[in-house]
Write a structure and sequence with these properties.
This protein is α/β, with parallel strands linked by helices. The chain is built from 15 helices and 15 strands. It folds into two domains: 238 residues, Response regulator (Rossmann fold, 3-Layer(aba) Sandwich); 179 residues, Rossmann fold.
């Protein structure tokens, strides 16, 4: 083995050690091993790698949803490296476990920035975690990419929001539901900032449409007892339910509905968090006939999407499914890598500006980073959950929707005051850890 080959082998083993620090990520070793073999073909293979921080919940109640996002991000890294890397340099993913806990996320992002010296960080799911990470990346003037649909009500010069804003998920879903499911709704969610914000947006829109939110229930984050929400739904007999329940609490919620005789035929649920991934863990009998609202579903009939699903399954197994957050995580890595190429450097200040206006033909369609808001133009689809566990698209927006982070039912100041009220009431936390809260 010549000197260059030995150096490349060492680089591959170094990257492999970095990414296998958590037991879950051991399976990702094949990605880096394959990538290391490809590095030997590069003309500039002795260039140091560009590090990309990846932080998701690999343990705790959110791991059901976030582990697959890591798979999608590592697939994007592998494909970029197979194509020659970025600026002739390999990408090195440095993966950290947020453990479904906001404080842990903040510590991990601090470590990725200061110790691992990554060029950017991508990650999080819950808004409580993102809001805890936000001051860390702003203090270091770093770049964070957030690939999760969320409540909006935020902008930051240090964050690129690639997940759907409320104008791209919540608002079109409420309008479709009002037109097709009825006027009276119960709002249920996990007890933290995202569901409270989503439900405030929904209440405003229902009032404008002439509908009504007849009840509102919040469940402790990560709980496996959904009886309070089920009882409220049974008592109020709404036309339908909007759900922002996160993570594995969905198992208890949908099972509880079925056991209480609340079927999709009489009380359909429109979820903003259940995707193809969660359906693999949920009973088909509990889910059939309910709805889910996202920018992306695996069933989107585009050649680009079909090829993406094939590549993902070829890497991880034919029984795997792809969800919105996975697709978003995947194209987010590609968007960032393209910005680095166009900037000619991974320099944070250059990339942070170059990524604005960046477009990519993602599996769902064309997505573009909006320069004015640092959010992304996204598609919208309403999906019906079938008995076979698949999601059938029943309605789609004709074109990508412009991101509007702050819904116009209130002023920016009113939304900021609303958020500050939650934060203060919860004792300077973005999660209500004191009690289950209901209206």
């Amino acid at each position: 083995m010549d000197r260059r080959a030995r150096l490349l082998a060492l680089a591959g083993r170094h990257a492999l050690r970095r990414v296998t620090q958590h037991p879950y990520i051991a399976g990702a070793a094949l990605l880096l091993a394959a990538g290391a073999a490809g590095w030997s073909l590069w003309n500039s293979a002795q260039q140091p790698p560009i590090k990309l921080g990846i932080v998701h919940a690999l343990s705790g109640p959110m791991d059901i949803s976030e582990k697959p996002m890591v798979d999608a991000e590592l697939l994007a890294v592998e494909e970029i490296n197979a194509g020659g890397g970025v600026l002739g340099q390999p990408l090195e993913p440095v993966v950290a476990d947020g453990a479904s806990d906001p404080a842990t996320y903040a510590r991990q992002v601090e470590k990725l920035i200061t110790r691992d010296q990554v060029s950017a960080v991508i990650g999080c799911w819950t808004s409580a975690c993102r809001k805890t990470v936000k001051p860390v990346v702003e203090r270091h003037n770093h770049l964070f990419i957030y690939p999760m649909a969320f409540e909006g009500l935020e902008t930051s010069r240090n964050i690129i929001y690639t997940g759907a804003a409320p104008s791209q998920q919540i608002i079109p879903a409420v309008k479709w539901s009002f037109d097709n499911l009825g006027k009276r709704y119960v709002l249920v969610g996990s007890d933290y900032v995202w569901p409270h914000s989503v439900n405030a947006i929904i209440r405003d829109q229902l009032q404008a449409l002439g509908g009504e939110a007849v009840g509102e229930v919040y469940l402790p984050f990560g709980t496996q007892d959904a009886s309070e929400a089920v009882e409220k739904i049974r008592e109020l007999k709404p036309d339908a339910v909007f759900s922002s329940i996160a993570g594995d609490t969905n198992l208890a919620f949908y099972r509880g509905l079925r056991e209480a005789g609340l079927t999709a035929k009489t009380t359909p649920v429109v979820s903003f968090s259940v995707s193809e991934v969660e359906l693999q863990k949920l009973s088909a009998a509990d889910m059939v006939g309910h709805y889910s609202a996202w920018s992306y579903f695996q069933s989107i009939p585009r050649p680009e999407n079909e090829a993406f699903v094939r590549r993902f399954r070829a890497r991880y197994g034919q029984n795997r499914v792809v969800s919105d957050v996975m697709e978003t995580a995947y194209f987010s890595v590609l968007l960032w890598a393209r910005a680095v190429e166009q900037a000619g450097s991974p320099d944070l200040s250059l990339v942070s500006e170059t990524i604005l206006g960046q477009s990519i033909n993602a599996p769902e369609g064309i997505v573009t980073v909006d320069p004015a808001t640092r959010h992304t133009w996204r598609s919208f689809n309403m999906g019906l959950i079938r008995a076979d566990g698949r999601i059938e698209i029943v309605w789609s927006a004709e074109h990508p929707i412009r991101p509007v982070p702050f819904p116009r039912s209130r002023t920016v100041k009113q939304w900021q005051d609303f958020l500050q009220g939650l934060y203060t009431a919860w004792q300077q936390s973005w999660t209500n850890n004191t009690s289950s809260r209901k209206r």
